[in-house]
Structure formats: C-alpha cells, structure tokens
C-alpha cells in the first residue's frame, strides 16, 4: 500500500451496499434515468434521476447511498446533497456490479 493509495481507493459497490444494509434508516438512491432504472436496479433502491434531485423529500438525518452507471452522476448527486446538509455516500457505478438486479418497478 502506497502513501497516497487512500486518495484513489474507493470501496467497491458491494462494500458500499453492505454499509447501506447495516445503516439504520439509510436510503439507497439510484440517480439514473427511469429507463436505466427499469432495465435493472439494486433491490431496495429508489429511483430519483439526477436532474430531479431537487424533488428529494427526505429528512436530513437519513443517510443516503447513491449510485448510477459509472459513478459520475452519483458523485454529482452526493456533492449537491452534502451542500444541502445530507449525509451522502457515493457508491459509484452499477456498470461493474455483479450482484442481483431487479427489473420490476
């Protein structure tokens, strides 16, 4: 492990989902489009596309774990959520995720 590995090492999607499951009252937020969400999402996820994030109606004491396809939109979502006073964690992208996906809405 190098001196600066902590700057580039982000927990895997699976590790992040485990943290979500272990966190009381946490919300799993899929910030992809409705079409992407319908094509396959993590069971238990709520879909709220990045461009509709201002519609979020959650108490600020509920931790949020966000993901998208590659991690870029969820990073933007988490930055915005943190500015608004939420505790938000970027899980990254579902693109490399190999776990169970749900296709019903």
UniProtKB/TrEMBL annotation:
SMART domains: RHOD. GO terms for molecular function: thiosulfate-cyanide sulfurtransferase activity. Coiled coil: none annotated. It holds the Pfam family Rhodanese. Residues 22-103 form the Rhodanese domain. PROSITE patterns: RHODANESE_1, RHODANESE_3. PANTHER family: FAD-DEPENDENT OXIDOREDUCTASE (PTHR43031), PYRIDINE NUCLEOTIDE-DISULPHIDE OXIDOREDUCTASE (PTHR43031:SF1). This is Rhodanese-like domain-containing protein. It comes from Candidatus Intestinimonas merdavium.
């Amino acid at each position: 492990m190098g001196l600066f590995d902590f700057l580039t090492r982000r927990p895997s999607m699976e590790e992040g989902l485990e943290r979500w499951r272990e966190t009381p009252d946490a919300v799993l937020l899929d910030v992809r489009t409705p079409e992407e969400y319908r094509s396959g999402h993590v069971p238990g996820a709520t879909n709220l596309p990045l461009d509709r994030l201002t519609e979020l109606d959650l108490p600020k004491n509920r931790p949020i774990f966000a993901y998208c396809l590659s991690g870029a939109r969820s990073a933007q979502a988490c930055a915005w959520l943190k500015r608004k006073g939420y505790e938000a964690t970027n899980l990254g992208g579902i693109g490399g995720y190999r776990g169970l996906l749900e296709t019903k809405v």
